[in-house]
Amino acid sequence: MENAEAKEAKYATVTDRSDGEGCNGAREERSGEADYSRLPCLSEQSKTISFNVLLLRTPLNTTISRTFTTTKFPESVAALKLAIQEEFQVPVYDQKLSFDCAVLADGESLDFYRLKDGDQITLEYTTTVDVECAFHLMSLLRNALEFVKNEQSQLASGKISPEFSKTITDTLHVKDINQCIRQLFPPQKMFANSMFILNNRGLDVTTSLHSLLLNQTWEQICHLELQHLEYNVLILLNNLFMVTSQHLKYEVINNLDNIFGSFLRVPLSSKPIIVPHNRNLYSSTKHKQLEALNDVVTGALLCLNTKTADEQHQIQIVTNEKVMKQFVGCLETPTFPRHVQTYVLGCFQHLLYNPHTHKYLANVDLIGALLKVAYRSPSHQITFEDVDPALCSKLESDCVMYFVVMVISHLALTKATRLPEKLSSQVELLLNRFLRNVDFNLFCMWMVKARRYVWVDIFPPLSLAYSPLRYTSLCPIDSLCLEAAVMRLQIIVSKDGERHCLIKQGLLDYLICLPWHISEGLEAHKRAKLVLEMFGSHIPLQPPSLNNIVRAKLASTCCGLAEAMRSDCHRSVGWLLPGNSQQQTT
Fold it and tell me: pLDDT band at residue 384, thresholds of 50, 70 and 90?
């Protein structure tokens, strides 16, 4: 155990400030023994205690001074942090407290620091969360979990009396759960609130509740509240999946089979029973039940859209025959909402980024389903007050067609499948129609406004544009697919966040080199030059390094971008890069 002198020396260290002034503004660095001679200590004072809290938020570098009063004496620093969390909405794990140039350790008591009423504590933090709403949501989920666990046999029987039906509604509080989820996960607060729920074991409660709901088939679930509850659980899981940190990955992996279970609630591929996406059309309980199942499938699809972006789940998804049939069923069901079909197409795009999935996705049936959905009139579309409804309908159709074009282009450019002649002509017609008729600027606005895409990894789209083809002798479909791949890069670089993401991933040199490897007679070459102009209008461009120029040449002519960017790519493709004992000029 440390002696008193060692502890005093330990907590006399100065905490560095971002403004360079030391603790508490102009206080200078101190050395030697800390002065704890001020008496009495907190435990000897009145129960009502006040501190002046200096709130320092990084990296915004904002400073606010607030008074914090508590009527319950916190015995330890950890207890003080919990009280501060409730008062200032700053999560415990994000707090760094310091007093009199000493960082407060969670395991120490407040008496050790000799704090007194009116002292100033400095609180450093990075974010705030909606603590009350998050705890309320977790409380509602725990209550629902306990109820479903205790009433499993009666719920599964399908025989629900009016009295028990009222008990279900009053106990589950599904509307309150939905309201909490809406409040907790706007884009600007999603990450902070999700991490708070994860750190407070919210994922355990959510997955346990989901598992219990899956124990009953959809025919047995006679009460709509249970279906609405499953939908809300899936929406919550999707938000948690998107921000799951590495140390929580194992918990999410084990839940993927449950996501499959919800997605396969309704066998779309065998008998499409989903009803139109218009709640005003429902008059019978059966129709309302089918609409609720529609929502469940949609919620599961959102989760799968998030998980297909994760390489470790991609093979598990494409090798599940039932899931793949369900994907096609979502595309072929005419009354299924258009925006949900874009989720399916997004899943296919993510899966195609992994070369090992191509053999599972390269089939004529899938291409046929993609062509059907591309030409189908929308049964439901997103609308905005400032956009004409007719234009909304066209842009929504263009959006679905865009995702179809991207999936087909990927299959064609990677030579994953060989199309029959009749199907090939239909694909060529679709590509021409989209690339020549779409208003690019208006379409980009729609993609951002309707939140149709979020790019967190720029490598896959750029890698597709670097597919090793003989650009001088391309067939018409290949040239159109290449143009579509470059168009995707145009959309990506039109947004500030994606431009910085591209630089962060070290891909700017390869973007600059792209027009050099596409024949000038192709439309794809013109679009590639436009990509650089768009990028250069926001961020100055510098000449690429010689090493990356050679790697870009290898990528476009021989092995693709992924292989070319490897440090030992010269061994696998037979080329020699600068820096080896024997050099070859390319």
Answer: very low
**Residue matched to tokens 């290898």:** 554
Residue with tokens 């994922």: 203
- State the burial class of residue 352 (Cβ atoms within 10 Å of its Cβ: 0-12, 13-18, 19+): buried
CB 230 within 8 A of CB 296: yes
In the numeric block, which tokens belong to residue 352? 């195609």
Give the containing element (helix H, strand E) for 364: helix 364-375
Q: Tell me the per-residue pLDDT of 211-235, one tens digit each, with 9 for 90 and over.
A: 998 887 665 555 678 888 999 999 9
In this structure, are residues 205 and 252 in contact, taking their beta carbons and an 8 Å threshold? no
Tokens (6 digits) for 217: 């088939």
Q: Cα separation of 254 and 258, whole Å?
A: 8
DSSP 164-183: HHHHHHHHH-HHHHHHHHHH
Residue type, 178: N
- Provide the pairing of β-strand 102-103 with 49-57: unpaired
- In this prediction, residue 136 carries a pLDDT of 95
What is the residue whose two structure tokens read 């195609």? Answer: 352
Radius of gyration of the chain (CA): 29
Q: What are 369's two structure tokens? A: 């389903």
pLDDT computed for residue 205 by the predictor: 92
Peptide bond into 578 cis (omega under 30): no
- The C-alpha atoms of residue 344 and residue 327 are separated, in whole angstroms, by 6
Answer whether 83's CB lies under 8 Å from 70's CB. Answer: yes
Q: What is the pTM of this model?
A: 0.75
Give the Cα separation of 249 and 206 in Å (integer). Answer: 15
Report the side by side order of strands in the sheet with 96-99. 62-70, 49-57, 120-125, 96-99, 102-103
Question: Are 559 and 468 in contact, with CB atoms under 8 Å apart?
Answer: yes
The closest alpha carbon to 480, from 523, 509, 443, belongs to 523
Whose tokens are 């299959």? That residue is: 411
What is the C-alpha separation between 273 and 333, in angstroms, rounded?
9
Q: How many residues does the chain have?
A: 586
Rounded CA-CA distance 88/83 in Å is 9
Q: Tell me, what DSSP letter sits at residue 109?
A: B
DSSP, residue by residue, 76-98 = BHHHHHHHHHHHH---GGG-EEE
How far apart, in whole angstroms, are the C-alpha atoms of residue 373 and residue 170?
A: 41
Instruction: Give residue for tokens 């499953």.
Output: 230
Closest by CA position to 518, among listed 559, 468, 558:
468
Q: Average of pLDDT values for 487-511?
A: 84
Half-sphere exposure of 96 toward its Cβ, with a 13 Å CA cutoff? 14
